[in-house]
Known about the structure:
This protein has ten helices and eight strands. The chain is α+β, with helices and mostly antiparallel strands. The chain folds into three domains: 116 residues, no CATH class; 56 residues, no CATH class; 167 residues, Histidine kinase-like ATPase, C-terminal domain (Heat Shock Protein 90), CATH 3.30.565. A five-stranded mixed β-sheet has the order 2-4-5-7-6, with helices on one face. Strands 1-3-8 form a three-stranded antiparallel β-sheet. α6 packs antiparallel against α7 and α9 runs antiparallel to α10. The N terminus is likely disordered. Its EC number is 2.7.13.3. It catalyses: ATP + protein L-histidine = ADP + protein N-phospho-L-histidine.
Amino acid sequence: MQSILSQIKSENQYLICVLSVSIAASLCLLTRDYLDHIIVGYLLLVVVSLLAAFLDILPVLLSAVLSALIMNFFFLKPYYTFHISNAEDSLLLILFFIIALINGVLTHKIRKAEKILQVKEVKVNTMKLYNALLDSLSHELRTPISTIMGSIDTIQSKTITISEENKQKLYLEIEKASLRLNHQVENLLNMSRLESGVIQPKIDWCDLKELVYNVLDSLKEDLHFHKIVVHADENLPLFKLDYGLTEQIIYNLVFNASQYTPKGAKIEIKVDYNPNIDFEYNPDTLMPCVITISDDGNGFPETEINKVFDKFYRLQNSKTGGTGLGLSIVKGFVEAQNGKITLENKEEGGAIFKIDFPTLVMNTAAISNE
């Protein structure tokens, strides 16, 4: 509410002050025979305080002056005149005016001080994030770059004789390092897009089964020592989603599982579609598409499970490396498609990510009619 009122034009703030004080005074005037004028003074002070909490100082001062004039004209005898019959009421009016002014000014200054404090906190948090990013990138970018440069130097060296088999191994190392480097750059670019709010999903019909296998193919080197199980119905319909964003979501989750589970761990990917039992197919009805990615690793610490989607957050006892961007990008891409992602630990060990998309569906048999 405060951020909305802060955008109100100056002339409108004066109008709000006049209307607020006038409405409060009108309500008090209707019950003047039952209310003591001291209580009326308290009520008008509350109005001035509320205005001071949201508006600029000059409109607030106007409300304080207007409250004092209304107090004098309508609630101090004799009524409907600015003449005051006794010294006690004169002192009361002067004190009311002074208190209203001081209250308005102090409330405004407190609000201003809070804004300054918030700006400082934002700057401090920004520096922390900036330092965390630099620390992460110094490792995540330097490692693949060093691998690429070292392998190229070895291949080009005229003093070292390298067999064709070893050359192929070095080329493979260059390829893996390049893919890792590209992954980190993609994450940085994606986070930049999310921060700037320029993510505009390009919705089209997607074959999620094909998408999943494409992701697994691109991660085959990272998944070499893991057991991969895919559950997807043969008659799975097409879903209307952004292919690129959804591919990046699954890529980041599977890659994350491959990096933080022990060798031999099982990673399961399940694409589910559960229409209502009495559902009559309608191409314009949103239906649930559920993607589940789970593993049988060590899971997440319960004290940190609510923080894993935060930008740059890395588990306290996680291995060296990682920028802490992967899961925050996943959440951003899911929400960009009006979806929801949840994370929980499995009772038998491991973690399970569940993504729910409300989306249009199309049975594959209907493609020819599309």
